[in-house]
Amino acid sequence: MQERDRQILRLAIPSIVSNITVPLLGLVDVAIVGHMGSAVYIGAISVGSMIFNVIYWVFGFLRMGTSGMTAQALGRRDLCGVGQMLVRSMAVGLAVALAIVVLQVPVCRMALAIVSPEPEIARLVEVYFGICVWGAPAVLLLYGLSGWFVGMQNTRLPMIISIAQNVVNIAVSLFLVYGLGMKVEGVACGTLIAQYAGAAMALGLLWNYYRKLRRHLKWDGVFGKKVMFKFFNVNSDIFFRTICLVAVNLFFLSAGARQGSVVLAVNTLLMQLYILFSYFLDGFAFAGEALCGKALGAHNNLVFRRVVARIFHWGWAMAILFTLAYLFGGQAFLGILTDDGQVLSASAEYLPWAIAVPLAGVAAFVWDGVFVGITATRGMLLSSIAATVMFFVLYVGWGHSMGNHALWMAFVAYLAVRGMMQTAIYFKCHKNW
To answer: Per-residue confidence of the chain (433 residues) as pLDDT tens digits?
Structure first.
């Protein structure tokens, strides 16, 4: 195996493990309340988790923006810049978290107005939200730290933190719910404690592994006009790109729901195939962030091009592997997720679209990692806007006649357009980078 491949796998594999553990925090909560004897609890936790997922997804730029700029500073051997990036990302994360905490009441009311759950569920969501919102400082602090770790070519620490968070969440939630008799409050407190445990562990690992960088942690220049302009310019592109992703995903969910409970269930199951694929591709995208950013910072164009080529080699290999797995085992996998005969029967009609997702989406995932690493975020934004427009044009044009097939066609096209446009941007601009 080539040295470049070993570097990629060393970064990608821990990231894949971390990605897989992330949704477990929400799944553990749902599993616990699922045995409380009422569907109301499941609904409350599902809605509450969804609200926080959307909020934190929107502020995911704190991780992505930090990783690319940190990797570039490391490539330049600018340890002062590396230290300043750490302080800057943590400070911005805490400032955003403070705003979320201060505005928690209007944020919660607005979210409930959009989702419109039943009154009993809404009351429990308010309880869940009112507790978990205090975890915002821990979550967003961890976003900055995780991005900084990736930029420092270290994806093993985020993996360790993710696993530890889930262990704490499971243990504390079970104790509070079944040991102390708490219900939604116990689940929310378990999640909150797990979030702060993860943040505390991240700070401890930072202190232990990077103590030699302490002398470079200086406030001078951290909030300089030039560096802050670049920080927010990069992150604003990622922010609005994320808004496009959220819009597509929320519309996909709502459009399926309007076609009935069976179609909604089918789409939910088939999206699990997309999500599973994305966990693996994101791992290689994280490797691209770290290695491409470092190569660009070192002004080593040869290494940069080789990294891009090898990342795509692994990306296409994963895409082909998942396509074959879904082609021959997709229906069996869906059978593991549900035993509802009507849903399984209906899913067979739309399964070919899910099978097409890996090959359609591989370029978008890989280029996202490369573009984040070299902070070419404007290309990410422009490609996402174009792909989002294509998604809605296709669905509006064909939705009436094709129904759910049009929704899936639009989603597959959305992924493909992102990848194709980013490819065009790369070949047009990479010499300037």
So the answer is: 577 778 888 888 888 887 777 666 555 666 676 556 555 676 677 677 778 878 887 888 788 778 888 888 888 888 887 888 888 888 888 999 999 999 999 988 888 887 666 777 788 888 888 999 999 999 999 988 998 898 888 888 988 998 898 889 889 988 988 888 787 888 889 989 999 999 999 999 998 888 877 776 666 655 666 666 666 677 788 889 989 988 898 788 778 767 776 777 788 778 878 888 888 898 899 888 888 888 888 888 888 889 899 999 999 999 999 999 999 998 888 787 666 678 788 888 999 999 999 999 999 999 999 998 888 888 899 999 999 999 999 999 998 888 899 999 999 999 999 999 999 999 887 666 5
**Torsion sign across C-alpha atoms 40, 41, 46, 51:** positive
What's the rounded Cα separation, in Å, for the pair 61 and 63? 5
d(CA 4, CA 7): 5
| Pair 52, 354: CB distance under 8 Å | no
Q: Is 299 helix (H, G, I), strand (E, B) or coil?
A: coil
Q: Both tokens of residue 259?
A: 């076609």
CA dist 281 and 314 (Å) reads 9
Residue pointed to by tokens 């940069």:
304
Residue 24 and residue 169: Cα distance in Å, rounded? 9
Instruction: Evaluate whether 188 touches 41 at the Cβ level (below 8 Å).
Output: no
Q: How far apart are CA 143 and CA 247, in angstroms?
A: 22
Nearest by Cα to 240 from 50, 51, 53, 58: 58
Torsion over CA: 46, 51, 57, 61 (sign): negative
For residues 153-187, one letter each, b for 16 or more C-beta atoms within 10 angstroms of the residue's C-beta and e for the rest, the string is bbbbbbbbbbebbbebbbebbeebbeeeebbbbbb
What element of type H or E holds 347? Answer: helix 341-373
**pTM of the complete model beyond 0.85:** no
